[in-house]
């Protein structure tokens, strides 16, 4: 019958589409993987990733936290975490992460000169990301935070399809142009069956340090409106604050250097809200 033929065709299509897709394999020693992503660059994703990783560790000293910089072309974690040097190798030829502030970190920035551009095609980038994931002795981590590159390309798909991910957090400013790409990022993770834990609204408001007047430089509440549209939560609302920028540039992230500041309380709020549910 026509119905049975249609069903057979659907089954055949499903079989063809499933061929060649990698099977997800957990990273040894890591309990939960959370990815921080943005559709557009320049929205403060790496800064947020660094401070959320530090806040997770600060909120519970019994938890071990790692940070992976998956942005091969523009690694930021070495500078923000005040780390330099090449990883040592274990007897099993695995790279040992560099560590600062109690966070184990791995980045392409540890493997190339700071000023050297990475001029690679897609396949080489994918191979590098695979090595950063699989050929690192992470030890035992409760959380591995992955700072994704901007966009919805090969790296995002490869990471999502190769390892089990507890959840994704989307970072965006309230600006309309950034929100367009943030929506694409959220939809991409949904298509590859990665739960989106929520959105973080970054650089939401600037307060003049002299007169205390508040200005919404990038617009107001754009991320909140997008979250409602997508049926997602807003995990945090982080202001545009000079201390956040200065401290990350100097390798002393605000969670470490100004732990009592208002901005840090908002980061702690975001880190608490983004914790995925424990696996059964």
Automatic annotation (TrEMBL):
Gene3D superfamilies, sorted: P-loop containing nucleotide triphosphate hydrolases (3.40.50.300)
Cofactor(s) demanded: [4Fe-4S] cluster
Disordered: annotated segments: 1-22
Keyword NAD attached: no
InterPro entries associated with the record: Mrp-like_CS (IPR000808), Mrp/NBP35_ATP-bd (IPR019591), NUBPL-like (IPR044304), P-loop_NTPase (IPR027417), YlxH/NBP35 (IPR033756)
Subcellular localization: Mitochondrion
Function statement: Iron-sulfur cluster transfer protein involved in the assembly of the mitochondrial membrane respiratory chain NADH dehydrogenase (Complex I). May deliver one or more Fe-S clusters to complex I subunits.
Protein name listed in UniProt: Iron-sulfur cluster transfer protein NUBPL
Gene: Nubpl
